[in-house]
């Protein structure tokens, strides 16, 4: 059953009776301590990390929030996801969900629940399920390689992620794309005490089989220098063994097969062993050169990476320097001291892992990419604001991107909204808010911003962290968001929206240069392991401006080292490279461009305490986050503002069908149409205002009423369209059916006539020149050859009787009344039923209760018929001679049809012609013995009674004589008479 959310405080802070920062915090505190972690400020969702499972994310909860308006249900992350999905379908505009907050506030979990919800409410075809599975399985894979345990969070994202899910016109996911930002690769080589390296290392060491551990030369976590600095090897709530199985399963889902998995694990093992590679100094003073202390470790690394151990050692302890240009270029192998060798080792390890992570992201994208472009929902899960005891270049970049995201929030929820009220002429009392744009400018503005000065300092061969510190203090001495630390020379302070952060300048230049010597690139390119070669030859596509990217790459080609800016190129001189800061700034710019092109939805995550204790509330910390997230200012704007605004044209395009005065088409002024529509629907004037170009609706209830009416109206219109369409389709079907029946009837008639003409021609071939013709036979139409003169083809008793005699194959072909000559030469009324293989002589009686109405007097199989004999006169008598039995003698005025059809059926059944003879004296076997039919032609039948019409006149009379039946026959037409031309 769905868990019903408790009614604690107010769901929407807009409904607070007292509007103050204290009442806002008290409401959040009250709800949080009662297990209610979601609260809203209009469309903005506030989420507090409960540090425990609350049971509010099941299938029942998904069904509860599916297709509901915000005011109908309590705030929930599913409500935000549903609103974004419905907006994408109804508005056909890209949507984005921006999740922001401190590290440990629950952003990554929030993004998972959004993905889960979208996957649950969309289609279930095979292809859709495949795409959803790959998107969902990307989470554990990215977490394994990109997340780590920190002091604040056991599953902290150490990279930024923007996941775009693309939908088809039917609203089902058809693909997606993941963009990753600034992996904290320094974590590969160093961790704070109490923190861990990336999860994947511990998963591999715990979850690999004994055979894999031997093959990959794996040790215990404590044995690796790159893992033991943090003195922490486990994390609460994380089972590395189980997680490793999930990671391998996810790899398989996104297309990373077992051979490629093995290459990845070999590379991970090599990275860990690089940290155990130590160097010994040879020589003294400035001439001391480094050599590898333990050759066995180097040999193992070389084996795992597929490179020559000697080349590995040479690349780490020496550096190739080129001087001169063109034909005068000279190469020098410059030995490195121990410090330089350790730096090269760590840089190589960081580059290997960073490029491997990028490769993992590319493989995921390959599995979910789609060639066509469509509407997307983007989910931004990026590292939260970080303030540590020692904040370095990584924290500077992380806090920079959070500063820009806060600027988006301010622009779209505070600044732009208020400016819009003023520009539209809406009555408005401005709300003051803290604008952090000066802080963003401090970091990124050209030509004098911290990032620009950092890149500039990297150009100078003698540039160092101290000289950078001097420039920063000089240029930003009067900046309100910057200050230096008088007591500590290597620190500066930036006053961020989240508070003041002390940054340690040491390492800024090295981390920004992101130096990787050519020798190490050459080493990687020599690898026999395909994966190592691939990750170093991959060239990332241009981020924005193709021409600018080309210029940047040309600069890098002329530079003195390789880096992540253009991963496949080994430069040749010492000019300006593409720095990590420059790259990150470009990435952030591209991200902002994507976010500004979407309709945004906000989830503001709050970390309730630093101790990760369930439902523990730290008032001071929460107050600080509420303040810097701008929640109070957002509340003031929502209280004073309007929940909905839209241009008149778009408003009419969405709701014109609700009023009779604007339906079915409104072609006049859009504002006038909106007024007519609202008046007709009875929306009170105090609920809305008209601006210069837009309509503003104050409260959500009228808007939801419009939406509900629209849903009902669309259903009505769809029903109407369906009925009209169905009527049209039915009419078309009926017309086509009638036409088809006419064609079929005409065709069947033509086939029947053609067949019957053939039969009539066949009858002529039988009787022509053999027998005098009866006028009735000459005038016989082709339709007479249908043959079922008694209409018994559909008689149930007849059908049942024939099936009983012959099985399912038996079908009636001919039924006709006959006059049978008995053994006493008397005429008896009978009927003949002829199938494809038998002749049945039947006599009728009164119908009985079982439905029977005749008895079979005789059954004659075709195979027992010897021949048929007729006279040469114009009578209708014939004799069926039956082998080893008495013959069957009868007369019928349907003689021509009967004999013709019988001969046809006989031939089809036995593949031979029936013998037909013509005699004026026909001997036959009766039940009493031999008998005879004697025929005589007379001009007049003696003693014939007057007939009602000429058609009723019998052309014969039969009189028994001793041992025979004498038949007198009137003259007929000559035997050569033809009724039709035989073709």
Automatic annotation (TrEMBL):
Residues annotated as binding ATP: 101-108
CDD domains hit by this protein: IQCD, MYSc_Myo1
Keywords: Actin-binding, ATP-binding, Motor protein, Myosin, Nucleotide-binding, Repeat
Domain Myosin motor: start-end pairs: 8-711
ATP-binding is among the record's keywords: yes
GO biological process, one term: aggregation involved in sorocarp development
A molecular function GO annotation: microfilament motor activity
Span of domain TH1: 773-961
Region of interest called Actin-binding, as start-end residue ranges on this chain: 588-610
Signal peptide (from-to): none
Assigned GO CC terms: cell leading edge; cytoplasm; myosin complex; plasma membrane; pseudopodium
Pfam families documented for this protein: IQ, Myosin_head, Myosin_TH1
Subunit structure: Myosin I heavy chain is single-headed. Dimer of a heavy and a light chain. Inability to self-assemble into filaments.
Similarity annotation: Belongs to the TRAFAC class myosin-kinesin ATPase superfamily. Myosin family.
This protein's name: Myosin IA heavy chain
Species per Swiss-Prot/TrEMBL record: Polysphondylium violaceum
């Amino acid at each position: 059953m769905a868990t019903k959310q408790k009614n604690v405080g107010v769901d929407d802070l807009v409904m607070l009776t007292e509007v103050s920062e204290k009442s806002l915090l008290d409401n959040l505190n009250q709800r949080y301590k009662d297990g209610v972690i979601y609260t809203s400020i209009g469309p903005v969702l506030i989420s507090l990390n409960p540090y425990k499972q609350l049971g509010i994310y099941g299938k029942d909860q998904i069904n509860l929030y599916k297709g509901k308006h915000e005011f109908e249900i309590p705030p929930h992350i599913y409500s935000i996801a549903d609103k974004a999905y419905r907006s994408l379908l109804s508005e056909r505009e890209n949507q984005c969900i921006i999740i922001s907050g401190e590290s440990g506030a629950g952003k990554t979990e929030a993004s998972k629940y959004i993905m889960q919800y979208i996957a649950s409410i969309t289609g279930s075809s095979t292809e859709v399920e495949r795409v959803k599975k790959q998107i969902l399985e990307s989470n554990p894979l990215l977490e394994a390689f990109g997340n780590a345990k920190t002091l604040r969070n056991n599953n902290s994202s150490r990279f930024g992620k923007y996941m775009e899910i693309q939908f088809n016109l039917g609203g089902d996911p058809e693909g997606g794309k993941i963009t990753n930002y600034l992996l904290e690769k320094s974590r590969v080589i160093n961790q704070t005490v109490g923190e861990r390296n990336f999860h994947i290392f511990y998963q591999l060491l715990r979850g690999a089989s004994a055979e894999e551990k031997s093959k990959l030369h794996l040790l215990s976590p404590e044995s690796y220098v790159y893992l033991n600095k943090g003195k922490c090897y486990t994390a609460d709530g994380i089972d590395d063994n189980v997680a490793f199985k999930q990671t391998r399963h996810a790899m398989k889902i996104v297309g990373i097969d077992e051979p490629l998995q093995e290459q990845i694990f070999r590379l991970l093992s090599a990275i860990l062993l690089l940290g155990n590679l130590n160097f010994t100094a040879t020589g003294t003073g400035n001439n001391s050169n480094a050599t590898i202390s333990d050759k066995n470790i180097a040999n193992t690394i070389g084996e795992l990476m597929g490179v020559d151990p000697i080349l590995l050692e040479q690349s780490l302890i020496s550096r190739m320097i080129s001087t001169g240009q063109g034909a005068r270029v000279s190469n020098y192998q410059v030995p490195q001291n121990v410090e330089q060798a350790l730096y090269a080792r760590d840089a190589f390890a960081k580059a290997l892992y960073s490029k491997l992570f990028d490769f993992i992201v590319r493989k995921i994208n390959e599995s979910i990419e789609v060639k066509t472009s469509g509407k997307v929902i983007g989910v931004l899960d990026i590292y939260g604001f970080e303030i540590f005891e020692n904040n370095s270049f990584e924290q500077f970049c992380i806090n920079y991107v959070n500063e820009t995201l806060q600027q988006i929030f301010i622009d779209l929820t505070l600044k732009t909204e208020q400016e819009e009220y003023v520009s539209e002429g809406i009555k408005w009392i401005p709300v003051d808010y803290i604008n952090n744009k000066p802080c963003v400018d401090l970091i990124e503005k050209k030509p004098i911003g911290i990032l620009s000065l950092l890149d500039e300092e990297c150009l100078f061969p003698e540039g160092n962290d101290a000289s950078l510190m001097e420039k920063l203090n000089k240029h930003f001495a009067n900046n309100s968001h910057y200050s230096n630390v008088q007591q500590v020379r290597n620190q500066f302070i930036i006053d961020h929206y989240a508070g003041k952060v002390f940054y340690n300048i040491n390492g800024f230049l090295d981390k920004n240069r992101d130096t990787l010597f050519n020798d190490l690139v050459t080493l990687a390119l020599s690898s026999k392991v395909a994966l190592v070669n691939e990750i170093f030859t991959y060239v990332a596509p241009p981020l924005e401006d193709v021409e600018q990217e080309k210029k940047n790459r040309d600069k890098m080609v002329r530079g003195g080292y390789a880096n992540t800016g253009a991963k496949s190129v080994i430069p040749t001189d010492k000019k300006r490279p593409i720095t990590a800061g420059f790259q990150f700034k470009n990435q952030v710019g591209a991200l902002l461009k994507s976010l500004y092109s979407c309709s945004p939805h906000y989830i503001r995550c709050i970390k309730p305490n630093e101790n990760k204790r369930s439902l523990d509330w730290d008032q001071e910390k929460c107050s600080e986050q509420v303040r810097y997230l701008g929640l109070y200012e957002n509340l003031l704007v929502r209280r004073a503002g309007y929940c909905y605004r839209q241009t008149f044209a778009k408003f009419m395009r969405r709701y014109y069908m609700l009023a009779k005065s604007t339906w079915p088409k409104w072609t006049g002024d859009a504002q006038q149409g909106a007024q007519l529509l609202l008046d007709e629907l009875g929306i009170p004037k105090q609920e809305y205002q008209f601006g210069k170009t837009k309509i503003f609706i104050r409260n959500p209830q009228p808007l939801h009423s419009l939406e509900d009416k629209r849903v009902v109206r669309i259903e009505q219109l769809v029903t109407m369209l369906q009925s009209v369409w169905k009527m049209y389709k039915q009419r078309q079907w009926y017309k086509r059916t009638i036409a088809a029946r006419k064609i079929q009837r005409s065709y069947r008639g033509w086939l029947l006539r053609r067949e019957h003409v053939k039969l009539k021609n066949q009858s002529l071939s039988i009787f022509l020149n053999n027998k005098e013709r009866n006028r009735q036979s000459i005038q016989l139409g082709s339709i007479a050859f249908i043959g079922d003169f008694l209409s018994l083809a559909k008689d149930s008793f007849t059908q049942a009787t024939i099936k009983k005699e012959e099985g399912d194959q038996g079908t009636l072909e001919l039924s006709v009344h006959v006059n049978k000559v008995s053994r006493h030469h008397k005429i008896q009324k009978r009927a003949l039923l002829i199938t494809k293989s038998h002749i049945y002589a039947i006599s009728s009686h009164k119908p009985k209760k079982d439905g029977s109405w005749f008895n079979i007097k005789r059954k004659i199989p075709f195979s027992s018929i010897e021949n048929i004999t007729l006279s040469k006169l114009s009578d209708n008598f014939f004799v069926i001679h039956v082998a080893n039995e008495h013959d069957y003698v009868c007369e019928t005025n349907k003689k021509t049809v009967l004999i013709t059809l019988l001969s046809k059926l006989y031939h089809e059944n036995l593949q031979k012609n029936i013998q037909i003879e013509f005699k004026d004296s026909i001997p036959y076997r009766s039940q009493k013995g031999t008998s005879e039919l004697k025929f005589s032609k007379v001009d007049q039948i003696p003693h014939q009674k007057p007939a009602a019409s000429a058609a009723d006149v019998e052309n014969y009379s039969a009189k028994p004589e001793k041992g025979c039946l004498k038949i007198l026959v009137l003259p007929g037409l000559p035997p050569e008479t033809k009724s039709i031309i035989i073709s």
